Amino acid sequence: MRRLFPVTDETAAPAPGGAAGEDAGRQWSLQELAAAYAYPEPGPRGPVPWLRANMVSTLDGAAQHDGRSQPISSATDMRIFGTLRALADVVVVGAETVRQEGYRPARAREDFAAMREAAGQRPAPAIAVVTASLDLDFSLPLFTSPLVPTLILTGAAAAPDRVAAAEKAGARVVTAGDGIGVDPALAVRALADLGHTRLLTEGGPRLLGQMVAADVLDELCLTVSPMLTAGEAQRIAGGPAVTVPHRFGLVSMLEEDGFLFTRYGRARAAY
Asked: How far is C-alpha 56 from the geometric centre of its chain's CA atoms?
């Protein structure tokens, strides 16, 4: 792993035939990754919600292969995936992604236990599923055996029988919309009201597109996979286009085995 941006002594040009920087070829520790991806420190008024997305894309823009992200990922990408989860209070995910990826509850990681305790966090992040229909299999471990109760984000007009089924399975149903669907801005506010201010979304593309359109995304952690898939796979964000593109600035970039691990923040964001 090596850091390409911001420029430091680690990004010095390599000697002929050599590796760039002292960190090239060395696997970063989980503590180093946690420091590289730390959430912004709370301001004088205390913590405010900060929503980051973690996605992977091939060189030709595919966010999935055969409906899943795993084939375009890497071992280091999965280490960063685990680190981002370990830093978060809650992981927000769309119902379709839960169904396609076979989502399981987040687990407690011994490597991050002391850090989470010091930050006042639960042993593992909660999973918050965004769904209008609540068309979910509530017999799955995500609902029956999570370390932290799973949250269901839905609208006020959700079907009462599905709400009852979710609650019977042990999930906590949170209203985040006036109709059937979920309003991303209300979802962020509702999660913050529950004490979850370090927010992470892992998609899928439709949910991320809704968050982009609602202008609630503060940060994008994007892994650029050195693969080409062609086909008609989804991009990392789908749905209607925004009227004016939202400008983000590069915060950091790491590289390993041709994979680029980038971090972009709102242009107005200060790091």
From this structure: 10
Q: Comparing C-alpha atoms, which of 254, 244, 250 is closest to residue 264?
A: 250
SS3 at position 232: coil
CA distance 76 to 8: 22
Q: Note the pTM of the prediction, 2 decimals.
A: 0.90
Side-chain half-sphere exposure of 95, counting CA atoms within 13 A: 15
Place of tokens 């980038």: 262
Structure tokens at 165: 């089924």
Query: Which token pair is 205?
Result: 């593309």
Residue ranges of the chain whose pLDDT lies below 70: 9-24, 267-271
pLDDT at residue 203 in the model: 84
Q: Are 218 and 248 in contact (CB under 8 A)?
A: no
CA atoms within 13 A on the CB side of 123: 9
